[in-house]
Amino acid sequence: MTDVASRTGTGDLIRQARLAAGLTQAELARRIRTTQSVVSRWERGGDEPRLSTLDRIVRACGRRLSLTVEDDDVDRSQIRQQLAMTPAERLASVTNLSRTLATARRVT
Fold this sequence. Notes:
mainly alpha
């Protein structure tokens, strides 16, 4: 199931896991102690289960849920600097950034 959720919706993930296990919606519902209509709603995208419930769903299908949290390119030291700023310093920084962006827009 690695990286499947990033390419498909949660409903598709649930359906794929259920079908791979050869389960009907009713059988899956019994395994996780819910109703077939709830499973159907999840698969159609009408509702989304909590992460803990999604883990139970996938495990009931004989699979394991693996999540990856990806870091973006933000430098951690920049985050620490921002968090250390006083409200006045943060306001000055945002004002400066806003002025710089406005100047850049005029130039281009």
